[in-house]
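Morning. Coffee machine broken again, so started the prediction first thing and wrote up yesterday's gels while waiting. Chain of 308 residues, entered below exactly as on the submission form.
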Amino acid sequence: MKVFIAYSHRDSAIAKSFYGYLREHGFEVSSDNDLLVGDSWQEKLLSMMSEADVVMVIVSNDSMKSVFVHTEIGMTIRSDKFRDIPRLFPYIVYGTDIPSNLEDIQCFIGTDNVYHDLELISEQLNELRGSILTKNKANYEQLGNIGVNLDTYIRDVFVRLDKNERRNRLLSYFMYFVAFMLLTFSLIFAFNTTKAYVLVTTLEEIIPKAISGTLIFAVAIAMARFAFLLGKSFMVEAIRNGDRIHAISFGQFFIKAYGDKATRQEVREVFGEWNIDKGSSFRTMEARDIDPNTLGALEIIKTAIAKK
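Came back before lunch.
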């Protein structure tokens, strides 16, 4: 169990007694005595506090005048709101009144015999250590169950994404083929229609043939464009599914490699890449993308006939 001792330097003698006694009794103790020359003391102390299972604050009339001790108490109280087992362990030095910011927290009231107090504190810390070990065991079992469920979920996602990728690729190839066939039909139709116009001698025969031919040609071109856009959209979706599979594979590796050390935010950032797309490509399709502009073509025919 890791114990961090927060105190005022005027209580150094008491802190030294705590430090030595708890270490002798199997606790991993840290305090500002562990700072080395050149250390960033604020960063190092915050790191010690965050890693500690217990933050033991030596509360005395002197320590209550220390801004740093008040800050350490406040930070621990805030962090304890998100923990099942509180970390703050206030030791009230004999003859010191309980400060207002600790009135709602169970404190250890010291006596004039510090070593007797340390015996009782050691017993309480051992009980707390047992509670922490039990809680950690339950958490590990829960994480194990979550891991199994997550693996199952990831496998299901892989299967669905793989099916979607294959389906979208096949649909894309099919729509490209349809677009190619419609373009081929349009070219053949245009060629045959041009040949037919040569045999027409009167204007009355040209007009209906030109209008019907233009409409058929325009519809065929529009369908070809529509088929091409569908093919492109299906291909984009297939590529996105492939990217999602790659992102999930990396996320799965990240969890297996760093799952017990990774923070919730890091896991969210890694798996946030699952949704790589910015919306389906089908949403960007508009009516004008397949509009054959038939009216424009008929206007051209009308102008040509008028000139003739």
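Helices lie at 12-24, 41-51, 67-80, 114-199, 203-258, 264-271, 294-307. Going to sketch it on the whiteboard this afternoon.
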